[in-house]
Amino acid sequence: MWLPMLGLTALPHLGGLYGAYITRKEVKNWYQTLQKPSWCPPNAAFGIAWTCLYTGMGYGSYLVWKALGGFNEDALLPMGLYGLQLALNWAWTPIFFGAHKLKLALIEIMILNGAVGATMLSWYPISRTATMLLAPYLSWLCLATALNYCIWRDNSETKEE
Q1: Left if phi > 0, otherwise alpha if psi is -120 to 50, otherwise beta: which for 127?
Q2: pLDDT of 52-85, one tens digit each?
Q3: Crossing angle for the helix pair 43-67 and 128-154, nearest 10 degrees?
């Protein structure tokens, strides 16, 4: 039973690797030119944070999958919401860093926050542990949303409508 655990725990990291590929050159060039609030975390913090968050959400998905007996009718809503939020998570980086669409990225991350909240609500009756593994993720997303908003607000000359 360790293969599903490893697979589901590793799954979120696939999008993270793709995001890191997109972000790598943009952080050194475009992102450096943006006005950011004083409370913006240092660039080095993002990779560490996302590694922990992706691992937690992935393991949480395994706990839900296991508690429901795999991918079946009962798993449709909780795992479907998880898949939705994961797709939204993976989409944010190409929008923000790849396309430099700050406003669209802000709208997208607000939808992502809602999707993560809905995922947590659907997971709670199944596995409180899995739900709590998403709490740091939602907290970080709130910080990321505020950061996205401030960058959009403070960079009108680089804002893409």
Answers
A1: beta
A2: 999 999 999 999 999 999 999 999 999 999 999 9
A3: 150
